[in-house]
Amino acid sequence: MLKLEHIRKQFEDKVVLDDINVEIGAGEIVSLLGPSGSGKTTLLNIILGLTRMDQGRIMFQGQDLSNMPMKKRGFNIVFQDYALFPNLNAYDNIVYGLRNKKGSVSQQEVQEYIDFLELQPHLNKRIGELSGGQKQRVALARTLVTKPRILLLDEPLSALDGVIKESIKQRIQSIAREFKLTTIIVTHDPEEALTLSDKILIIDQGQIAQFGTPQEIVHHPSNDFVKQFIIQQLHIKRQNIYNLFGEQYA
């Protein structure tokens, strides 16, 4: 379990996060949802260890990680732009992070991730030859082979459309289930959060507006902000929301 206790972060005179308290269970998919500037990316970076918090505590499996450097936390992230190396082919990108971890992952395990993400036909392709969905899968494979204790994703679907987006959603859900991997996702899109996540943490101006399951948030929004940000936007993706929550919200 990951526990965030009284997390606070301030940049100069602006409080970006204020008293964030959350418990995330093992293997859960949790989306950090909110408008631009709400503090969700800052919270993701604090969990990763990229940004230091001003106050609070991060606990993972009973261990206090609050002052632990990013490299020692054992978490890993797929960035929004994938951060792949264009001069390397797909396979070399996947195994790049293993260069300094010799023996930590077997070739068989690497191959299992490649097969799981259906990347075998693309291993010799340069990054520029891959589609958006293929790049996302390469980025996921590169992260998974390092065996992260928590998987962090920054806007993983923002550059994808239609069928490809739905396919990557299913991949993310399959990864969390197959590997029992706690997954935390930053998104600004309510439809993505509602259809992808086990739970959603909605952040408004640095504070928790609501934390709950998609069904709880749709049927029992905690305040007017949640209603406006979630309920009024459901018509944008009518069919997906109809399938999940029924005609009254489609």
TrEMBL record:
Q: Does the keyword Glycoprotein apply?
A: no
GO MF entries: ABC-type ferric iron transporter activity; ABC-type quaternary ammonium compound transporting activity; ATP binding; ATP hydrolysis activity
Q: What class of enzyme is it?
A: translocase
List, alphabetically, the SMART domains matched: AAA
Q: Which Gene3D superfamilies match?
A: P-loop containing nucleotide triphosphate hydrolases
So what does this thing catalyse? a quaternary ammonium(out) + ATP + H2O = a quaternary ammonium(in) + ADP + phosphate + H(+)
Q: Check the record and name the SUPFAM superfamilies matching this protein.
A: P-loop containing nucleoside triphosphate hydrolases
Q: Name one GO cellular component term.
A: membrane
* Keywords, in A-Z order: ATP-binding, Cell membrane, Ion transport, Iron, Iron transport, Membrane, Nucleotide-binding, Transport
Domain of life per record = Bacteria
Q: How does it assemble?
A: The complex is composed of two ATP-binding proteins (OpuCA), two transmembrane proteins (OpuCB and OpuCD) and a solute-binding protein (OpuCC).
> What is the protein's name according to its record?
Carnitine transport ATP-binding protein OpuCA
Q: Which organism is it from?
A: Paenibacillus solani
